[in-house]
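MFS general substrate transporter
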Amino acid sequence: MATDIEKESGVNHFNTKGSDSSFDEELTPKEQRALINRIDRRLVTTVGLMYCISLMDRTNLSAANIAGMEVELNLIDFRYSIVTLVFFTTYVVFQPPSTIIVRKIGPRIHLATITLLWGAVMIGMGFVEEWTQLVALRIVLGIFEAGFFPSCVYLLSTWYTRYEVGKRYAAFYLLGCVASAFAGILAYGLMQMKGLADLSGWRWIFIMEGIITCLIAVIGYWLLVDFPDKAHTSWKFLTEREAAFIIRRVDADRGDSAVMPFKLSSFLAAGLDIKVWGFALIFFSLTTVTYALAYFLPIILHGGMGFSIAASQCLVAPPYAFAGIVMFATGWIGDKMRFRGPLIAFNAILTLIGLPIMGFHSNNAVRYFGVFLVTAGANANIPQCMSYQANNIRGQWKRAFCSALLVGFGGVGGIAGSLVFRSQDAPGYKPGIYACIACGLLILVIVAVLDTKFYFDNKKADRGELKIEGSEAGFRYTY
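Tokens:
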């Protein structure tokens, strides 16, 4: 009889070639649930907490800008946009090597080290005297943060089956939304340290958040877990019996738990698959909107809608809280119903409804309602896109390549997002609104094309005309 975990992952057995079924027999359904819950608490919570601080560190510029940084560093003309976008030049370039490094040295050392280093850079940002110094530190920050998100996406994908990963990605990213929701409130509180040690309030935003980041890095080193094949030897997170169970259930779901020796040609060969570029373009379109909100929402609320500085920083929180609800709800539905594309389309439509309201309505209260829809639709689609990709590829190194490519295009979206809302377009910011609408429409087109391809490829596989992703075990696309 299939266990509860087997039913959730959509398979009827875990035996693979050369495995010992006694491992599975020793794990009762109750033990299986307890094991998965333990992995969730340790893995998802830890990477989510570290991502929370990552997103906060990456997007605190807007709060610091309206807190006095703009005046003190003379951020005139395009200087603020330059400060935001230079981060992504190194952030994009250094992502592909990171998924190789994390597989080689393990997530504990890799993720904790880069988190500690970017925390130190954050502290340094609180002591800059010229805007060019801030630019230089943002470039260095991009180097260290580049490896974090793709490594986390890859790590999570190795632990869970295809129809478990949606909720986990949603929970992981939800913690990032919590950071975005309360970053403005935290920044406003830190601003009140103005004058302490003769430092401006905006400087304390960087210094204190940098110190918090360094503390989280140390905690993360002790709490992070390794890949499943090393989890029973790395700090004894799992027993050998438990690790074998996790590996076999993932292998039964998609048949790619084995890690092949690294070859650069094999790693790069994943780039020949056209669908991974489709996933990447979806992610680019999403992050263009999410980063635009992250970098400019307080500025739009203050300069575009007329709210006070305090209100602008605090009013960022409710839309992100609403986004968290939509995000987890769609993640749960996607895992339960086993589809991804329609949910991505739903969230994109939500964004497309919100953008004209946010940009063109004459009433500021109604425009603020539009912010809710845009923030929810765009951010809820981030874990949906990650799940869409993770459900439709096989192979450890292909998974590593695709995670890096996906997040790399997300970095390019960050560059676009840092430029779409320009100061000269205030208070309506219409060019930025048009750009975000174009991104939403592009998402709908790509999802329609990919889902159509997946549907017909699955039909061919059912007739025995096609082996999807080279699988001999009946792997099918999720659309």
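Confidence is low (pLDDT under 50) at residues 1-24.
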